[in-house]
Amino acid sequence: MDVRVVDHPLAKARLSTMRDARTNSAAFRAALQELTLMLIYEATRNAEVAVEPIHTPVARTDGYRLANPPLLVPVLRAGLGMADQAHRLIPEAQMGFVGLARDETTLQPTPYLESLPADLSGRPVLVLDPMLATGGSMVHTIRILVERGATDVTAICTLAAPEGVRKLEDSGLPVRIVTASVDERLNESGYIVPGLGDAGDREYGAV
Ligand code: URA
After folding, report:
1. Cβ(133) – ligand 1 distance below 6 Å
2. Which ligand 1 atom is the nearest neighbour of the CA of 200?
3. CATH architecture of the domain with residue range 3-45+68-204
4. Closest CA relative to residue 142, chosen from 122, 126, 159
5. Is the pTM of this model over 0.90?
6. 192 lines ligand 1 (CB under 6 A)
7. What interface predicted TM-score (ipTM) does this complex get?
């Protein structure tokens, strides 16, 4: 499994702000947005570029653009806090949405929203979800993408638990992970330790 941990000092600083229980929602969202920029920047490091001639005021030179812009897929609700920043960095990207709720009987993630292009073959996909905890939601999301032909999927997560990384690995799905940290473990309530608490609640306030 390709797991890229972005441990740049600025990423560590923003993640520390997010972890700190004293950080309020506005500051948490701001840190999440800044960290998202760094994660997307790293995730697209090897993106294919197209070269075309451009003219500076002085001379002709090579110009570059993304040859195959990715589809951005925030997973509702917590992934919404990453969507605008990702789009700011890749304005030519399209955005789809996946909404998952937990079925309280089966405890399985159940989709209530799949707003995605029908055909994803040949298209890189960046899934945005701040927390890779058990990995259940991420596996479910990636299956939905693979059913549409995706073969190049990157999970962009501010934090990951080893259990979630293992679950993705065991799934055999075509995915790599870009994260700012792989933390110690999950606790008995399914929270990442040390983690940052419930990302959605911290972004938007508990509802
Ligand atoms: N989801 C969260 O928001 N936080 C966790 O620690 C685990 C899952």
Report:
1. yes
2. 3
3. 3-Layer(aba) Sandwich (3.40)
4. 126
5. yes
6. yes
7. 0.96
